[in-house]
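In response to reviewer comment 3 from the previous cycle, which asked for concrete evidence that the modeling workflow produces usable outputs, we include below a single protein chain processed end to end. The sequence was submitted unchanged, and the resulting structure tokens are shown without manual editing.
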Amino acid sequence: MRVPVDIFAGGTLTEEYARINPTRTVPTLETEDGRLLPESAAILVYLAEGTPLLPADPFDRSQVVRWLVYEQTDVIPATGGLRFRLATGRLRPDDADARRRRAAGEVVLRLLDDHLDRREFFVGDRYTIADIALFGYLHVADEAGFDLSAYPRVGRWLELVERQPGYMNDVEPYPPNAAPGAGRSTYD
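The workflow returned the following structure tokens.
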């Protein structure tokens, strides 16, 4: 069952939530036996165990981890972080930080586009949780001002991911309380 948490209304700042996840981040998965697992990459690995989405081959599995780490360290700040800051008015497109993030995003997109030169997916020529994690931020990169037509292999890959069984686009616009000073969150 999915339980929404309004991070902009202080949903992660409560003591109750701190007991669920002391780092006060989302998402957090509660397993059937009541254990709690924070961090999206860890959750993806847990949920994909024993499925084709997580390769059994040690090298391919390590490649999945490589892309999960890259998504967290490079893709999110440069694309997702920029999109969030622009959409909520925390940055203007011409701000120095926006320009820095956009430049980093262009490096990220070029690297990803080059990686997809001779393959359909990121690992082992099949759809894995690496694709799921990367897709989450790349399919909205145009909202951060990136011209995705400059990265045709990324564009082809985005379309391929959207055709996967079970694909769902559940991205929603940021709520009004996401604007600076309009809510209570770790971003204020």
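The chain is about 45% helix and 5% strand. We consider this sufficient to address the reviewer's concern, and the full set will be provided in the supplementary archive.
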